[in-house]
Protein: Enoyl-CoA delta isomerase 1, mitochondrial
Organism: Zonotrichia albicollis
Amino acid sequence: MLLSGSGKPQFGEGNREVGEAPLGRPVWAAVGGSLMSLCLPFTGVATMKFKSPPVNSLSLEFLTEFSISLEKLENNRACRGVIITSTLPKIFSSGLDITEMCGKSMEHYTEFWRAVQEMWLRLYGSNMVTVAAVNGSSPAGGCLVAMSCDYRIMAENPKFSIGLNEAQLGIVAPFWFKDTFVNVVGHRIAERSLQLGSLHPAPEAHKLGLVDELVPEEKLMERAAAVMAQWLALPDHARQLTKTMMRKAVLDRLVAHREEDIKNFVTFVSKESIQKSLRMYMEMLKKRKS
Ligand SMILES: CCCCC/C=C\C/C=C\C=C\CC(=O)SCCNC(=O)CCNC(=O)[C@H](O)C(C)(C)COP(=O)(O)OP(=O)(O)OC[C@H]1O[C@@H](n2cnc3c(N)ncnc32)[C@H](O)[C@@H]1OP(=O)(O)O
């Protein structure tokens, strides 16, 4: 991931630290681990760029780095917003790494699912303004990342799609994926889309309200910066309290049922029938390629 931003040098172990200009003013930070880059310039707006080829799958390692990066930004008082995007052409994120859910131990599934929960709790509950610049396809967990942001701008290419397609894999979107979806598009659209496991091409996603606007791909980052400026023009405390008011019930529900949710996931994913569905899906992806 690639993360960039300005402000106090609070992170960057093993990476390049935030620099100090000769006058003692902070310059910019090029920090983050190997799977994303993060930069935080003077504006106080970080840009986080996923860079985990081939398709930015959310592996355990990726999710861990994502959560740590979010925590570092959250704790950096100079950082008020983050734009999340991808360095890969045509792909924002392919969602959860299916190989993490296939043929592994119960302990592994437990650790993996806790990392998925942690990422969502941090992103959906963030005090920062979060804008997703969706510059490619974004199925399932990728859609969850985008939906967890405050605002979604998508490249207007109809070949790019977004949605919670779990049902197509023979799995079920967990209740907090569903809650996040309902909060974005409303109950009826969420129900139909979830039951059908629909992946919506960008223009349809816009019509449904799953993304807030479409722009030509080359204008995506410029527009994300403009939206961010608009959201940051308000006092942080008022915006943050409002965000909390809107999201708290859904966040609290997972916090209250976290261990039960992990147990459900582990039991579900360990079933031979589910393992078979996931294996078949992976084979289908490989065949489609050849
Ligand atoms: C009742 C109780 C319920 C409790 C809860 C229980 C369960 C919930 C469980 C799970 C929830 C999961 C949510 C998810 O996120 S599942 C993941 C869903 N993702 C997808 O369906 C996307 C699949 N991928 C694609 O459609 C395409 O790859 C994509 C459009 C993203 C890109 O297409 P492109 O043609 O560019 O690239 P490919 O050739 O298809 O892929 C390259 C390479 O990458 C592999 N791959 C793709 N996606 C994934 C993935 N998500 N995980 C792992 N690997 C992936 C693909 O197989 C290729 O590999 P290789 O052939 O090069 O080896």
